[in-house]
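hey so u asked for the seq, here:
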Amino acid sequence: MKDASPHLCQPDAGKSCGACCGLYNYADSSRESLILRLRGRTKLFRHADKSPEGLQVFSRMIQAAEDMARRYEVIYCCEYLGFLDAEEKRIGCLLHPLQNGGVDHRGVSFYGRELCDGHFCPSYHYISGEEKQALLNIIADWYLFGLVITDIDLVKSYFQLISDGVYETPSPERFKDGLLREKALAFFDLKLSWPFRSADVHRLGKYYFDGSQYMINHIDYEALGSERSRFDRIFLSLTSDFRSREDLRQAEDMIQSHLDAFIHAYQDNP
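ran it, C-alpha cells below
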C-alpha cells in the first residue's frame, strides 16, 4: 500500500509532477520546450468549448500544432496537461474537476477518468515517507521535481550515501532551509547539468527505448578499463555516457565532492 502522506503529484502550491502524463517522453523535453508547450495549450484550453465534442476539437488542435515526437512510442503524452496557476509553478490535468468548477472532464482523455484518478507511480511505494518529505523540502521547481521524484534509484542512492556518511538518517526538517538544503539541491541539480549526459534522445535515466520496448542501459566498465563504479546506479540515473576511464574518474570525483559537501555541512551544523 502506498504512503498516505505526502502526496507527490500535487504536493504544494509551488510544484507538482506530470511525469505519468508523458511530460518527459517528448523527444524534446527540455525545460524551455515544455514551458512553451504547456503555456500554449493552457491558454487555448481556457477559451475552449468544454463539451465532449469541444474537448476533442481541442485535442486535435494541440496534436496538429505541437511536435508530438516521442522517446518511447508506447507511453502516451497527454495533450490535456497544462499549467494550473498563473505563475506557472504547478502543472497538472486541465480536465480535472478542481480546474473546472467541480465538473470532471477526464473521460475524454486517452486514459480516462478511472485510470487517471487511481494511478500512483512506483515512487509512492518505494521512496520512504522521510525521503519524500525531504525531497519536498529540497526542490521547489516543477521541472526538476518531476525528474527527481520519479527516479527511485537516484533518490534512494543519495539518501543512503549521505546517511552512511553522517551515521544517521537526516530528518526531513533539516532540509527545509539553509546550507543543507543548498548542498542537497546542488546534487539533484546534476539531473540538469551533468556533463557526461548522453545526447541520445532514446535515453532517459537508466532506460533505453528502441521505439516499441525499453531496456535497462548498462555502462561497459570493462571497455573503460575499470571495475563497476560504486556510483553505478547514480551514473545510470544521470543518463551517463563515458568515453574514457578519465571521464569515469572525473565523474566519481564529482559525485563524491557533492556527498562530502553535504556531510561536512551536516557535521558543522549539528
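The chain has two domains: 19-123, 152-268. The chain has a mean pLDDT of 91.
lmk if thats what u needed
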